[in-house]
User: What shape does this take?
Amino acid sequence: MTKKYGQNNPKIIDYVESLVNDNDPHLAQAQQIAQHRQIPKIQVSPLDGRHLEVIVRSIGAKKCVEIGTLAGYSGICIARALPEDGVLYTFEYESTHAETAEEVFQAVGLSEKIYIFIGPALNNLSQINDKGPFDLVFIDADKESYPQYLQWAEQNLRIGGVVLADNVFAWDHIADQDIDNPNLRASVDGLRQFNSTIFNSKRWRSTILPTGEGLAMAVKMY
Ligand SMILES: C[S@@+](CC[C@H](N)C(=O)[O-])C[C@H]1O[C@@H](n2cnc3c(N)ncnc32)[C@H](O)[C@@H]1O
Assistant: This one.
């Protein structure tokens, strides 16, 4: 699936991609491994990967959490931004995805700072409660659980810590009134609840970076 950008001019998209993709052997290697293992191409776009990396670097994050590993593309973007003693805990439902991510992290030399948990994230997140508080949580898994992932983040982030969440525009359906497909409806409901909480709760100060997918960014205030 081709990821879109908030910017719709194809010439500008090509231009930005050429800037961002230039000279990135690790991300290229990750994609080769994922393709070989027939993993669906639903990773973040190269530009969103760069957003993750720059945000992690800019807040000086040392302990990060990712929900939705897939084959490790976004995990590389986060983990490469961590200091030597930094850690990424990443959660993935599908064992084939997690095994591929393991191979990818080994191949690019990041496996020592990344811990993968396999199974439904809601069952596994409590395993790392005692490793917190965390600096950043990136949410990119099942959309109907975004409100519960946010609750976990609220309890386990440090003050000033950041939640990032991808796809908060619900593939352009976030503002639709009538949604017949029940799966899509559940995803949109989850995303609306998530968006509403980060904008209406005093515990969060939030924005949505208007990428094609919508990348929410919320800072924990207290
Ligand atoms: C969009 S992909 C993640 C892409 C990844 N963040 C990247 O950019 O490289 C979503 C992933 O979430 C996983 N997932 C779905 N439901 C999950 C759950 N309940 N717990 C953990 N992972 C889940 C899927 O198997 C899939 O690999």
About this structure: The radius of gyration is 17 Å. The longest strand covers residues 157-165. Residues 42-44, 67-68, 70, 73-74, 91-94, 97, 120-121, 140-142, 145 surround S-adenosylmethionine (CB under 6 Å). The mean pLDDT is 95.
